[in-house]
Each structure stands twice: as C-alpha cells, then as structure tokens.
Amino acid sequence: MTASPPIDRVRHPEKAHRPDNPVQRKPDWIRVKAPVSAEYAETRRLMRGLKLNTVCEEAACPNIGECWKKKHATFMILGAVCTRACAFCNVATGRPDLLDPHEPDNVAEAVGTLGLEHVVITSVDRDDLEDGGADHFARVIRRIRETSPGTTIEILTPDFMRKKGAVEHVARALPDVFNHNLETVPRLYPTIRPGARYFTSLNLLSRAKELEPGLFTKSGIMVGLGETKEEVLQVMDDLRAADVDFLTIGQYLQPTPKHAAVDRFVTPDEFESYASIARGKGFLMVSSSPLTRSSYHAGDDFRRMRAARDAKLALAAAS
C-alpha cells in the first residue's frame, strides 16, 4: 500500500482544467501559528513509522499545530486517495490505494502509544469497494476496543451510497459517536459535493440512530460557500428531525486556487448566533466557530455531550 500519493501524481486531476479562483487573504480571526512544537514532530514521526494517514495533513486542517501539540490526531483509514471529487476538499483523488490489512492493528497501536482517551477515525470515500469500506471501519473499531478498552471512539464515515448493509455493519461495531457530515446546504450540492446526495447523507444519520439508539450521532456543515442563513436553519431542522445530537459549523477555507472560492468570511458573532439558535433547537452539543472542524476538541465535546444527555435523562426520570 502507498501511504500517501507519490510526489509526481497530480493531486486533483479532475480540477486541473478549471480556471483559478484566487485564494483570499484570511481575516485576523482565522490566522493560526505554524506547527513547530516537539509534540507535533513526535506525532508526525509516529504516523510515518506506522504508515498511517491523517485527515489533519491530507485535508490541510488549520488546527493541526494545536491538536498535534496535544497528540490529538484524526486517523484517515482506507488509503489516502478518494474516489470522489468534492470542490471543497484537499484530499487527493484518483485511483485508490489497496487496502492495508495491517491498518486496524497500526491504528490501535498508535492510539495506545498516544494514550488517547478519545479517538476520531475518518476515511476517504471508497466507491470502488463493494461495502464502501464498512468492514474495515468495523475492524478498526473492534481492534481499538481490544487494545484500549477505555478509549471512546468517534467515527466520521462516508455516505456509503448504494452500499447495502454498510451502515448496519458499522453501527453494530458500536462506536461511541457516529458522525457523517452534510458539509453544505442542499442547493449547493451539485457544485460543492457533486458525487453525494443530501438526503442519502441525512438518511444515513437517521438509520444509525434507529439501529443503535444509544449511539451519539453528529454532523457538520461549512459556511462561507454562498449559503443563506435560512438554508442553514433548515439544515438544523433536518438534522434534528433525524435525531442528530451534535452539530458542528465551521468556516470554509479554500485549499488551492483550483478549489471552490470562499464566498465570504463569516464573522465570529454570526457563528455565535448560529450556536445559540442550534442549542434552542435541541442539539445536545453545538460547536460553531470559524476554526471549528469535525474533530476539533472532539474529546472534550464528547464528554460535555454525554453529560448533557445524562442530565436530560435524569430530568425526564424525575418529572
């Protein structure tokens, strides 16, 4: 298996013919420091040594310096090459890698070495696989349970579109959090997420909770792509109708000139307004800020979400 795309491979061949969208200068509230800590270097060495991919690197996450200083890495399984070509994403696209049969063991080893209390496992889309990678997800979850039984596990899955039985297989492996991102409002799917379908993603989240009511479900969207406030509020309502517990909202940042342009930079006050509205709609947990990403502060947020559900159940029992 190739752990990452070869240097001479065009990272986004499907975007090469597109005209450039100049990358806008970020406002002061989004700028972050370059990763230079010893802990960052140590985490990077561990990932390379075990031939593991991280979405932190592949998706050019702005929070990598902060998270890796705390040794909080988000593992990206099923290879480093995606079969989709989303307009917002910096993960390489093209012919995917062969599955690494040792990956579940290596991920579990890294979780133990880093001493993670909470781990986030995501992946590329694998439309080429019969089950979309569902069995591989289940194997990773089970291996972590065997080697680090005290670690809570959050998965961020593909949509498993047209992969019969995939959601059921992953849900039965009993992660603590089943996350799948809607990414944007339905009107923008044809240009921003052309290989996906809004209601396929929404139904996946609903199905996961239906199968295992004890699971926490989670989803996220980006703003700054041209959506309206009314569309964002409708997405919130759709997610609550699917009984989703946790919502994340973050600023879209353009990875390269070939990716979708930033329509605007949403202000911190607007993010706080979204958070307030979402809490009022009944989400157990909301993270809404310019730098919010699915796995940013995921462990701390999981603990708060679990406490919120416990309090809600206790209140219901007392009434």
What does this structure look like?
- With 319 residues, the chain is α/β, with parallel strands linked by helices.
- The protein has a single domain, classed as Aldolase class I (TIM Barrel), CATH 3.20.20.70.
- Helices cover 38% and strands 13% of the residues.
- The chain has 11 helices and 10 strands.
- An 8-stranded mixed beta sheet has the order 1-2-5-6-7-8-9-10, sandwiched between helices. Strands 3-4 form a two-stranded parallel ribbon.
- Strand 5 (118-123), helix 5 (134-147) and strand 6 form a beta-alpha-beta unit.
- Helix 6 (166-172) runs parallel beside helix 8.
- It is globular and about 60 Å long.
- Mean pLDDT is 90; it is low at 1-8.
List the helices and strands and how they pair.
Layout: H1 38-49, E1 53-54, H2 55-58, H3 64-69, E2 75-77, E3 81-82, E4 92-93, H4 103-114, E5 118-123, H5 134-147, E6 152-156, H6 166-172, E7 177-179, H7 189-192, H8 198-211, E8 216-223, H9 229-241, E9 246-251, H10 268-280, E10 285-288, H11 298-318
Parallel strand pairs: 2-5, 3-4, 5-6, 6-7, 7-8, 8-9, 9-10
Antiparallel strand pairs: 1-2
Helix pairs in contact: 4-5, 5-6, 6-8
Pfam family, one: LIAS_N
GO molecular function: 4 iron, 4 sulfur cluster binding; lipoate synthase activity; metal ion binding
Organism: Skermanella stibiiresistens SB22
